[in-house]
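W.,

You were right to be curious about this one. When I first looked at the sequence I had no strong expectations either way, so I just let the prediction run and decided to look at it fresh. Below is the sequence, 141 residues in total, followed by the output.
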Amino acid sequence: MGEIRVRPATAADVERVLAFWQEAAEGTSVSDDPDGVTRLIERDPGALLLAERRGELAGTVIAGFDGWRCHLYRLAVAPAWRRRGVATALVGAAERRFAGLGGRRADAMVLEHNERAHRTWAAAGYVRQAEWARWVKPLAR
């Protein structure tokens, strides 16, 4: 199967990541455009992690740390690479990043209807926190 290599994304990866999310990610985000992904990479160069196998993009996760909390977004694995350790490698790399930054607890944004994702996060030791709800307000239209 080959080794999974996890590395931070660079500006050269932006278009590749956006195309990958069209294939592998569940749902869309207001930031799913070149400006949004470029801004993320420039502001926090280690946050967008890519998993590659033999040069092929196999998965992504955004591991954002704001100095207070550790947030995980966009865990996406290419359909051909699911159930082969890609998500485990990405979550492990994100957690090591957080630990190195002094993070104390991580949370993951997971769509309510995405049962496959629920199983993935549970297998990684995450639990659904029922007492919280996400409130959002778009700042750009």
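Here's what jumped out at me. The radius of gyration is 15 Å. And, maybe more interesting for your project: The beta strands are 4-8, 48-53, 56-65, 70-77, 106-108.

Coffee later to discuss?

I.
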